[in-house]
Design goal:
The complex is a heterodimer. By secondary structure, chain A is α+β, with helices and mostly antiparallel strands. Chain A has 8 domains: about 5-165, Arp2/3 complex 21 kDa subunit ARPC3, CATH 1.10.1760; about 215-320, 2-Layer Sandwich (Beta-Lactamase), CATH 3.30.450; about 370-440; about 440-560, Beta-Lactamase; about 575-685, PAS domain (Beta-Lactamase, 2-Layer Sandwich), CATH 3.30.450; about 705-815, 2-Layer Sandwich (Beta-Lactamase), CATH 3.30.450; about 845-945, 2-Layer Sandwich (Beta-Lactamase), CATH 3.30.450.20; about 1025-1183, Heat Shock Protein 90 (2-Layer Sandwich), CATH 3.30.565.10. Chain A has 32 helices and 35 strands. In chain A, β9 and β10 (about 455-460) form a beta hairpin. Chain B is of the alpha/beta class. Chain B has one domain: Response regulator (Rossmann fold, 3-Layer(aba) Sandwich). Helix content of chain B is about 50%, strand content about 20%. Chain B has helices at about 15-25, 40-50, 65-75, 90-100, 110-135; strands spanning about 5-10, 30-35, 50-55, 80-85, 105. Chain B has a 5-stranded parallel beta sheet, with helices on both faces. The longest helix of chain B is centred in the last third of the chain and has 23 residues, at about 110-135. The radius of gyration of chain B is 14 Å and the shape is globular. The chains are: A alpha+beta, B alpha/beta. The interface of A and B includes residues 969, 976, 983 and 1071 of A.
Chain lengths: ~1200, ~140
Amino acid sequence: MISINRKTLALSAIFAFLAWIGNWLNMPLFYGVDFIFGSTAAMLAAALLGPVAATMIAATGGLYTLVLWNQPYALITFTAEALTVALLYRRGLRNLILADLVFWFFLGLPLILLFYHGIIGMEWQSTLLVALKQPLNGLFNALVAGIILLVVQTAFRPTMLSGRFRPSLFELLFHVLLCSILLAGAIPIIVESNAQRNRHEAFMLERLEQIAQRVAADIASVPGAEIKTWQNHLARAQLSPQTSLALLDYDGRVLIEQGKLVAIDKQSGQIKPLDKGLAIWLPYGKLAAMERWKRGRYLTSIALTGVADVTQVYIEQDAESLVLDFEKGRLPLFLSLAMLLLSGIIVSYLLSRWLTHSLRNLEAASFGLADAIGNGLKPNLPASPIMEYDNLSKTLNEMAQRLTDSFNEQSEILAGLERQVQARTADLKQNRDQYQSLVNNIPGIVYRCKLDENWTMLYMSAIVDNISGYPASDFIDNSVRSYASIIHPDDTERVECSVYDAIASGTGWEMEYRILHKDGSIRWAYEKGTAIADIAGNIDFLDGFILDITDRKQAEAALRESEEKQRHITENIREVFWLRNADNDRLIYINPVYEKIWGRNCQSLYDDPSSFAESIFEDDKPVFFQKMSQYRHSGQFDMKYRIMTPQGNIRWVHAQSFPVKDVNGQIIRHAGRAVDITESMRAESERKRVTHLLTSVLNAASEMSIIATDVAGIITTFNPGAERMLGYTSAEVIGKQTPALFHKAEEVAVRSRELSQEFGRSVEGFRVFTEIPEQEGAETREWTYIRKDGWYIPVSLVVTTMRGDKGDITGFLGIAQNIAERKHAEAALKEQSRHTKAILDTIVDGIITIDRTGKIKSFNPAAEKIFGYEAEEIAGRNIKILMPNPHRDAHDSYLCHYQSTGIARIIGIGREVEGLRKNGELFPMELAISEITLQDQAMYVGMVRDITERKRVDRMKNEFVATVSHELRTPLTSISGALGLLNGGVLGELPKPVLEIISIAYDNSRRLADLIDDLLDMEKIAGGKLQLNMQKQDLMPLIEQTVDANRTYGIGRRVSLILTGERPKVDIYADALRLQQVLSNLLSNAIKFSPDGGDVYINVKQINESIRITVTDRGPGIPDGFRARVFQKFAQADASDTRKKGGTGLGLAISRELIERMGGRIGFESIEGEGASFFFELPIRKV
Amino acid sequence: MSTCQRILYVEDEPDIQTVAKLALEMVGGFTVKTCSSGEEALDEAADFMPDLILLDVMMPGMDGPTTFNRFREQPIAAKIPIVFMTAKIQPSEIAYYKSLGAIDVIAKPFDPMTLADQIRIIWEKREQNVHFQAM
């Protein structure tokens, strides 16, 4: 397969492009013969990239010839050329021109003859032309490619190109010569070709001018003649149908013509002026240059004078005849060019071969030169007829001769040296043998090793290393084991340190270390060594001496051990001995322990034998002296007393003394000993303290029965708590009874059966209590104790084992607690929970508890009824299945949010929400949730009440109110209208008492109407039917309009409405009518409660992003007790106000609802007795 | 500018009819013709040629909006302005009356002493609108 790398691919693409460009840049070498240069690229590719790439590139470039010549044969020929040349090149014909020549001779020419004559049917002459031109062109391109290659190779030779691309002198010469020959030969030929054409055209011009002048002369000879006559002149002058003539007027228009005028028509062709008034017309269209020329027409004109109207004689003629003549002359030119090329190639080839022949000979001879010199042979380089080569050859010969001589000389010196070395080596060997016998006779080993981690041995004096027991050869070059491997691992580091430290300080080392002997024992080695360095200071190796010092070491160790023992014995004698003389009390001996115990030196006692008594504790001195005086009589001294050392330590000492008598019974000496008993005294006191503590504990645990027994179960301890609990005294039971006395026999029997079964062997009697504690250390069970008086006491009994110092069981301890109260409490708790459950089960509200993740923990029967789930099926599921969306999906996040922030949506608040029954039905419910903490876990308890029924009733009520209100209005309209007319005096003046009554009736009918309006509003709000028409509103006009509308209401009581404050130009988003209703309501309240003649202020103010409208009156204000109810339905501070002030008591409730529905808030400020300010705020609409 | 003098008042409730007629005639000085049903009003309108029709909404048989549409179909009465007078005055209801083409709505119960003024104001407002439209 062809492996194509990226570089080759890129180069191929570039060459293909260049090939195409080269062909596109065709150059008409001779008229009608185009030279194309595409195959230059193909040739380069043939040399550099191989046959495949060259073929592809030639084919790509050849495509242009399809356009140029309208036939595919050139393409085939060029492709074949590239392929052949590339193959030849690869076969070793490294000369593109020769390769190309081979192609053209053997393949190219036959192909051309076949294609052009055989297939196209071209004439022989033209075929020959082509057959000459194509090889010429090809060879020319091969030459160009060859030169390019040479230039490139020369320029990039050393680095980029491999050896096979290196140009040889022969090639260089060949190309240069061929180039020179071609340049020298081709230029005259090309020049001659152009000269030929010029000659043809000059002849054409001459002929045309002759004809034209004849016409001109004819016309001039007969002045004033008619057009017809002129026509005759022209007809006569027209010698052949290829010639056409015309007479032109001033403007170049044709007056008359003879023959077909082709060139005058500028539409179909182009006129190119040539030399001396001659021009050629060439037709447009897709034609080969030669063809175009053939179809062209030569033309010229001459001026005509003296004849009216006619100014020019115009003449044109076909170019064909001229072209045919020209073509005839071209063939010889080509032939000579071809000959030139061929001979040029041959001449260049031969010449360059001849010129390089000597050099090649020289080169061939030089190949063997190095060997010849090396072998001391006389070199022989060929002579050459050319002077320079000959000189070079001679010089080289001479040089080689001298080299050979010096080589021979050196060889002799070397041989001498070798002999010396051999002699010296023999000497050395003798020395070494002597040295060897020396080192074999010394104890220990002499070694030489490398400075590496293995201590690689180079030499070891002994055959067997006595210290390790291994053959020395094992260590040499680490052949079996390394020396490092037999050094005791604990010493490895120390050995390394010693060696390296010594090397670093430039001294030798001396050390002892352990060796692991072959037999497994450890031997001690002594080593002394030094590092051997070269001149540069690099360590070459280490030399040293190793001695087995195991015996010495063992002796040392034994000595050390015995010393240690001695020291140990001395140190461990804790007793002071002494001997005194009986006659003078002088101290004969006291051992040094005295110094340790008393803290005083022995000498002081020798000086003053009674000085030890100075240390005795003051409190103990009297007894001491008493006993001392008694000693004289009894001969016995034995006392424990305290001493105070000079360091301030207090010690207990046990001192004894006795007399030593001679054979006659005469006391001659006193011997004594004293022991430091501080520790045992301290332990004793600690034991007493602990015993005391234990007794206190036992006594204090008055509510606990603590009983200890021995291993057999006999009671050894019986604390006051046990006495209290069981009614026995300790004296009654200790040492006499086992705990079986106060255990219920049936319980013990039951337990005995259980344990027997469990362990598969009989467990009875006291073992019933001890079996488990023995295995597990302790056992807690509930039992029933029987008091002495027969009462039963439930107890929780813990039995533990008591163990001695060695872990053996010494007895058992039973601690029992009266659990009667606990039992009672448990029973009560159970009862309580049954009770609670009963309540939960019967309660009508659903009660659900969930954990912090929302999982349902309990679900009471009412909840089951409400939601339709069974408690069992829903327990453990998430509470959210009881909710419709969006709460269902959001519930987890509600919980999370609450737990992380403590902000509750519903917990502790309670609200109406929708629930979801199992059957998918939605229903309204009231939900209250509280949080409880159970065993440190947050739990939530939800109380659920199904309010479907209540809602239905509410709805019915509201609908009823609506209907009734509407129905009420109709009669009310009549009543109110009729009374209004009467009251208005429309029906004539009424007597004053009648008018008063009518007025009351009218006012009340108005109130009734208002009440109905408010009730309807209320009903709408409650029923959720209130629809607000929220629109963008310009605030101030709305306020002003409302204030104006309410002015009349105050007029009767001389209450003025005064608009104060800023008048911000803002828009709000509100229902205009409802806003006016709210403001009217506040205004009418303010007017109502204002004193006669009082003012009501309306203030509009912008506060941040909202607008506040305040209505202030100077009335009685809001009583403190009423504040909380101001916005409630039917709320009035004073029930009598209803009558006094009018109003339904619904206005503020409605107002609040409306404002809140519009996204605002309403409130008031009031000081009782000083008036009230009611305000509401609405958000400003952003523009 | 034309004046409003003749009012055709359609109301099924005789009491309200009486009160309103009194209020309009005695307080406002209008000439009032009352009808008790939509049918009657449609019959009378051609003879009476009112300047304005005051129309109740809730009536047995043909209700106010139906009557309204029937008036609009009569060539003679088609252009007579109509005002609804009703207790049903929720914003959506008012919007509905106006969408039919009523020039305004008067709420029940009405104030007999100001009813006439109310009508005059409505009339003038409409006259102005018509005037503007004419320009």
